[in-house]
Amino acid sequence: MTIPLSRPLPLATPTSAPFWEGLRRHEIWIQYSPSSGAYVFYPRVLAPGTLADDLEWRQISGAGTVVSFAVAQRPVAPQFADAVPHLLGVVQWREGPRLATEFVGIDADELRVGMPVTPVFTDIPGDEPDAGVTLLHYTAG
Q1: Are 40 and 31 a contacting pair, CB within 8 Å?
Q2: Quick one: signal sequence residues (predicted)?
Q3: Burial class (CB in 10 A: 0-12, 13-18, 19+), 133
């Protein structure tokens, strides 16, 4: 999948950097809280619920299930005019947390709540070495 460079891209923060660095290696790393016994996503400094300072990064498979989706027939922003219909949705990882994402390689008619999906890593080159970003999309499977 080719993404136009005019599209807005995420920026890593000190807290989220391990997630983005993992995606660059085509791996998915999210936080785990021993105090709550649960995986955590989005990246944060303290564990939700316990406010413990015990978050550690663990690799997950990224396999999941479609929880919700929308088929945008109009661009969500001018930079996405070439992407309609735009398949947006929420995937629940086997490990528990949910991720808002974009579906690729799927026809809109194929999408179903409850369908299994697998990760697709989309590398966006940068102007200098290590300046690019990798986005996490999902496809059927």
Answers
A1: yes
A2: none
A3: middle
Cα–Cα distance for residue pair 46/49, rounded to 1 Å: 9
Name the nearest CA neighbour of 120 among 63, 68, 76, 69.
63
Residue 124's SS3 state is strand
pTM: 0.89
Copy the structure tokens of residue 91. 């995937």
Cis bond before residue 8 (omega within 30° of 0):
no
Give the DSSP per-residue string, 58-78. EEE---EEEEEEEEESS-SSG
Sign of the Cα torsion 69, 73, 76, 78 reads positive
Cα four-point dihedral sign 13, 6, 84, 76: positive
Q: Who contacts 141 (Cβ-Cβ below 8 Å, separation ≥6)?
A: 116, 117, 118
